[in-house]
Design goal:
Layout: H1 2-19, H2 48-52, E1 58-61, H3 63-69, H4 74-78, E2 84-87, E3 97-100, E4 112-115, E5 118-119, E6 141-146, E7 160-165, E8 174-182, E9 186-197, E10 200-211, E11 225-237, E12 245-259, H5 268-273, E13 286-303, E14 306-329, E15 332-335, H6 336-341, H7 347-354, E16 364-387, E17 391-409, E18 411-418, E19 421-426, E20 435-453, E21 456-473, E22 487-507, E23 510-521, E24 532-545, E25 548-565, E26 578-596, E27 607-619, E28 623-624, E29 632-633, E30 645-654, E31 658-667, E32 670-671, E33 684-685, E34 688-698, E35 703-710, E36 718-720, E37 727-728, E38 733-741
């Protein structure tokens, strides 16, 4: 497979090169000063120009692109990026499941998620499942890095990294207020203002978004959510004539969430008849969460060629997701995933879930998944670049000391259901369903060297991770944590992660790039558990043919040890233990095309884009996955949750007074248990094609009317079968709003 991909892409690049006009002279300044493009030290690229000149595959979603649709759902923002796969859960993107190049998508736990260059998952080493994800509605840009030369961004180096770029301090006073309202009582209010006065710069931001929800409970209870976010930054910079230029920036971010979300989906039969219904037994399910971040950034430019950037950060995330977990009938306790998947085997349990019968006490067990996460650390990077006669050199060295933990203190209360209403019948002992602290102490360092010589760029790099993973389990009968029943365990990891990438420009309009790097994902805290490791290859070409701009990339990830996770979100027990899935191959192809249909029209612009991703996965060994999460795995089986085919197409009509944008996304079918051949009905999520629309009318340079439509054709479709049953995607929803700039 590796050789086939290599031959395909090399042949494609050669054809492009042959089609170029050989008399087209290259720019005399062949050593392009890519470092000068970086506008902020807490970004990966900072612009599309830098992204397209990486030696690895990269994508930059600009502020202009984010404003086209004003999405609050990260899934819809990422739909245009080849190599990104995801499956939805709640229809609003509150807890996304994102995969880069075939990594396990569950809770986005296998990719490095950052905000302003700092790890932002609640506990990225000890408990990486992202039950918190930064709100994309307040972001100015989103950066996606895939492929080679990922040694700068860890600890997850297999698929890549996603960096969310928050509000930047503007050069002069200005701001924006956006307000919209639409179907299902869905609304958004976003206000931002900032500026600079002398050596001080500032920005302040408020965001509220929420919805009444598009699902229906029998008692008409609220099924939506409400989220508030506040962000503030303050910067002090040296004087313009200072010999050494530097600044220090303080950032504060706070968010709170109340969402009436559940793990409980629908049976096959009920989804067919009423896909947007919810069972009465889920009426009290609710997530309450808060997130807080403090961050200090210091940038020191010792010379024009030597920069040191340091970040100190502290993140705290608290959440309690109180939700239905088990159903009891005549002393027989069953998990909701098992009941909904097998309603004919458990008719009495299912009747209680639906609220069709009056139950006895403690027939429904609701678990308080109560947890507190901490993540804190300090990181610094040194960047030094210099020039030769025909060369550009850049050396970046970085280090990070990091600590994170998940403090789990959970319990389970009993309920009865009478005439469709829940009543609490018992309070379970606190800590009985989880009373432990999992933590990680990690030191990471990397060095990456970039050499540009004429038309060739090389970027060898090396990352080092030293991780201590620990767990203190106080047991189910020690709520005050005296330590009488304390059990501990630990696991250590010490690993070097090398990588190298290259880029060669045949002409100004055609180049080939690629590389090879080691993929890594930390193990759990079970003693002796091995890390996830792989060797990853990519080869691609970027090209321009007239008005057509594109990128074609082939990738191959060779896992020597893939890790799976036992999380409740995929039907497991929720203990977060990882298990060895052995050898796996993941390969695929990514295509991105952009074309301007009206290049010579001074009044209108009509850009179109097309992106396609093909992903093939294959287990190379057989095993029985823990708690049946992936089922009985045989050699040749495909990974679950990863569709083979995806594509996105978009077209925009742009005028100085208005703009119209249409975007369609096709998600291929995928299996929910490992297997091969045709997918059984009970293990399949069908394909779908969903079209979104947005429009803007500019009254003047300051005031605009906005409109958005989600799921324009009102398709009814399933997005997943996890955590417990079939779940629908967002139906047709439209909103209107006003945007004011000042």
């Amino acid at each position: 497979m590796k050789l086939k991909l290599s031959y395909l892409l090399l042949s494609f690049s050669a054809i492009l090169f042959a089609q170029e006009n050989k008399s087209n002279e290259k720019s005399k300044d062949s050593i392009q000063k890519l470092d000068e493009v970086i506008i902020n030290s807490n970004v990966i690229f900072g612009s599309k120009y830098v992204a397209k000149n990486r030696t690895g595959s990269a994508y930059y979603i600009s502020p202009e692109e984010l404003k086209k649709y004003n999405y609050t759902d990260i899934n819809r923002v990422l739909r245009s990026v080849p190599g990104v796969t995801y499956y939805e859960e709640d229809g609003f993107g509150l807890r996304p499941n994102i995969s880069l190049r075939g990594t396990s998508p569950q809770r986005s736990a296998k990719i490095s998620i950052m905000e302003d260059g700092v790890l932002i998952a609640p506990a990225p080493y000890s408990s990486p499942s992202a039950y918190y994800f930064p709100s994309v509605a307040r972001m100015e840009a989103v950066e996606i890095l895939k492929g080679s030369s990922q040694v700068q961004y860890g600890p997850f180096t297999t698929g890549g990294a996603v960096n969310m770029v928050s509000a930047q301090i503007p050069d002069e006073f200005g701001g924006r207020i956006l307000a919209n309202y639409g179907a299902f009582n869905t609304r958004q209010l976003h206000a931002k203002a900032g500026g600079q006065k002398g050596q001080f710069g500032y920005v302040a931001e408020f965001l509220n978004f929420g919805s009444g929800g598009f699902k229906d409970l029998p008692d008409d209870s609220h099924t939506g959510f409400d989220i508030n976010e506040v962000l503030a930054k303050l910067r002090y910079s040296s004087k313009a004539d200072a010999k050494i230029q530097q600044y220090i920036e303080a950032k504060f971010q706070y968010s709170d969430e109340v969402s009436n979300e559940t793990y409980l989906g629908l049976t096959e039969e009920d989804f067919e008849t009423a896909p947007f219904s919810r069972y009465a037994s889920s009426q009290d399910d609710q997530m309450v969460a808060e997130h807080m971040q403090f961050m200090l950034t210091h940038e020191l430019n010792l010379t024009k060629n030597f920069r040191i950037t340091s970040n100190a950060y502290y993140n705290k995330f608290t959440r309690n997701w109180f939700k239905l977990d088990d159903v009891v009938f005549n002393g027989n306790e069953q998990g909701i995933a098992n009941v909904v998947a097998n309603p004919l085997a458990f008719p009495d349990h299912m009747a209680i879930v639906r609220g069709d019968v009056n139950s006895g006490a403690d027939a429904l067990l609701l678990k308080a998944n109560n947890r507190v996460y901490y993540s804190t650390g300090i990181q610094t990077k040194l960047d030094y670049h210099w020039y030769g006669d025909n060369t550009f050199h850049d050396l970046e060295v970085g280090a990070r000391y990091h600590y994170d933990e998940e403090d789990r203190f959970q319990w389970e209360d009993g309920y009865s259901i009478t005439d469709g209403q829940l009543d609490r019948t018992s309070e379970g002992p606190r800590g009985a369903q989880g009373n432990r602290i999992s933590s990680a102490t990690a030191f990471a360092a990397y060095a990456m060297y970039k050499l540009k010589w004429n038309d060739l760029t090389l970027t060898p790099g090396l990352r080092y991770e030293n991780i201590l993973l620990e767990r203190e389990d106080f047991g189910s009968s020690d709520p005050t944590r005296t330590g009488d029943n304390l059990s501990t365990r630990e696991n250590k990891v010490d690993i070097f992660i090398p990588g190298i990438g290259f880029n060669y420009a045949f002409t100004d309009n055609a180049s080939v790039f690629g590389g090879v790097h080691k993929g890594f994902s930390p193990p759990g805290n079970s003693t002796g558990e091995e890390a996830e490791e792989s060797i990853n290859y990519e080869l691609g070409s970027r090209f321009t043919l007239g008005q057509l701009r594109g990128e074609l990339v082939g990738f191959y990830n060779d896992y020597s040890n893939l890790l799976g996770s036992d999380i409740a979100a995929t039907g497991g027990t929720g203990n977060l233990d990882q298990f060895n899935a052995g050898e796996v191959e993941v390969s695929g192809l990514e295509l991105l095309l952009n074309y301007e249909l009206l290049p010579n029209n001074s009044t209108f612009k009509l850009p179109i884009s097309f992106g396609y991703t093909f992903t093939h996965t294959e287990f190379l060994n057989a095993f029985d996955s823990a708690n049946g999460i992936w089922g009985e795995v045989e050699v040749g089986d495909e990974l679950p949750y990863i569709p083979k085919h995806q594509f996105n197409a978009a077209i925009s009509l742009e005028h100085t007074k208005y703009e119209l944008n249409l975007s369609g996304r096709y998600n291929g079918e995928f299996r929910t248990l490992a297997g091969n051949g045709s997918i059984p009905d009970a293990e399949r999520v069908d394909s779908n094609f969903i079209i979104d629309f947005s429009a803007k009318y500019h009254f003047n340079k300051k005031l605009s009317l906005t409109s958005n439509i989600i799921n324009l054709l009102d398709e009814t479709y399933a997005v997943s079968r996890v955590p417990a049953g079939l779940r629908p995607g967002h139906p047709f929803g439209a909103n209107l709003g006003l945007e004011f700039k000042f």
